[in-house]
Amino acid sequence: MHPLLRLLAVCAVMLSHSLPARAVTLLRDADVEYALGRLAQPILNAAGLPSGSVKVVVIRDSSLNAFVIDHQHIFIHSGLLLKMQTADELQAVLAHEAAHMANGHIAQRYANARFSNTISGLGVALAAAAAASGADPRAAGALSLGVGSSASRVFMSHTRAEESSADNSAIRYMLSAGADPQAMVDLLNIFRGQELLNQSRQDPYARTHPLTRDRLRAVQAQVTAAQAKPGKTDEADYWFARAQGKLSAFLRAPSWTLRRADASPTKDIALLRQAVAYHRQPDTAKALATMDKLLAMRPDDPYLHDLHGQILLESRRAEAAVAAYGRAAALAPRNALILGGQGRALLAAGQPKRALQVLEQARARDFSDARVLRDLATAYAKTGNTGMASLVTAERYALTGRLKDSQIHAKRAADLLPRGSAPWLRSQDVLSAAEAHASKRK
What residues form DSSP beta bridges with 27? Predict the structure, then answer.
């Protein structure tokens, strides 16, 4: 089945009644996701999850939470990521969420949800798993869409038995990965006392991950019994500091970042934070001068060339941005986010044919990046292929939950594309999924 049809078929099954929605914004950044992936990989290996099958994605939200809704993504709120003090604490979160995947808790919740009319908005949440609309270019891409908050909380809530099971597994994963399991205790202590608060004042993590004194005592006992000798690595500390430093530089005031950048654990992270802060002030000259120093230190780091391209593109220096993104893509040729940036720069530089080739490569590696689909539709339109422009627009609207709009553009695409061709069949997939969703809502 076509991947879009599979995704929206889930939507059709899961959506039933409308509930009030709130915005969910994903922060997509190649550097941050690479750093989180480096920290997650030993944990995922210990959990027996296939290599490269799970991506860690950041949600822009100042509250403290992390959760899973499928077997491909671990979501973590920016507030929790910025709250943590060590790489071990982050790996404790990742280990706990990986345990929910490995222990079959997600599958069980899907089975329960099929018979529940209280689950609403879940299909849109699933569509959000990897999509991005570019709502905040300074934060390297974001996606805003509605999710039924009450329904998603019901779906994501874990039982005490699931939490106990996940804690046990997470400690084993951390030991195997060389992380200090004491960080699990430190993490739970952050939420200590939350269960005594009114639900409206609790952090989402406390609402969906029940924390009791018995649970805390059990985790402490397991950690003590483990007598762990963690294999602390400078590499884990580096990537944690880099992800946290870049994220904070985009989310907090530039003045806050510039006051603290020199306290970064390494010179390159300090320069990275300063470059982002200067860019956001905006002071393009200082941002680019800082990037020159940074690239001189790490000339073969694709994620720094990606940041360089972003700063240039957002400073309306499209030709220079093309060169910077080209260097990043040469160093990381399979990174969909970098390829998407390169395609965006080529469009801005008035090279739609080259942009089309690069954006199709990005789309092939990450079908659900809505920014790439938006730019791809523009590239098709600029090269005179209105049928493909309509098709890609239909797919983008479908992935962001705008199924009525997707249906309109899919019908237009079907009229313009050769009947029976592969693109025409894709338009039929969108129409089938949208119609299945509409019939389920009736």
Answer: 58
User: Which has the minimum average pLDDT: 10-14, 163-167, 232-236, 379-383?
Assistant: 10-14
Q: What is the residue whose two structure tokens read 């949440």? A: 125
Confidence grade of residue 416 (pLDDT, cut at 50, 70, 90): very high
Q: Report the candidate in 411, 396, 359 with the shortest Cα–Cα distance to residue 8.
A: 396
- Angle among Cα 338, 69, 368 to the nearest 5 degrees reads 30
End-to-end CA distance of the chain: 25
Predicted pLDDT of residue 147: 35
Which listed CATH number (1.10.3720.10, 3.50.50.60, 1.25.10.10, 1.25.40.10) goes with 251-441? 1.25.40.10
Instruction: Identify the residue whose tokens are 């985009």.
Output: 250
pLDDT digits (tens, 9 = 90+) for 17-37: 222 334 467 889 999 999 999
CATH of region 3-226, choose from 3.30.70.20, 3.30.2010.10, 3.30.830.10, 3.40.50.620: 3.30.2010.10
